# Entry
Amino acid sequence: MLTGKQKRFLRSKAHNLSPIFQVGKGGVNENMVSQIADALEARELIKVSILQNCDEDRDTVAAHISKGAGAELAQVIGNTIVLYKESRENKQLELPRS
# Structure
């Protein structure tokens, strides 16, 4: 689990990122979750945008994606989710100690 200090650090790092995935009318499916997991392995920190026509609410989408991809949920703000997962091979971010 992330501490408050670590979440603040991740939010500051994610501020300038653009969302690389969009969840639309179809909602979240297994293919999307596996692509997000691959992107997290490569980047560690990503944003996912939830479109207006998505049938599920943003908290449900965030929980489904983070659980499926094995990622930590750093933030849900507006229709954007910020996810973090420590990379095994491409470690880029050093989280602050609590």
Q: What stands out?
A: The chain has one domain: 4-84. The mean pLDDT is 93.
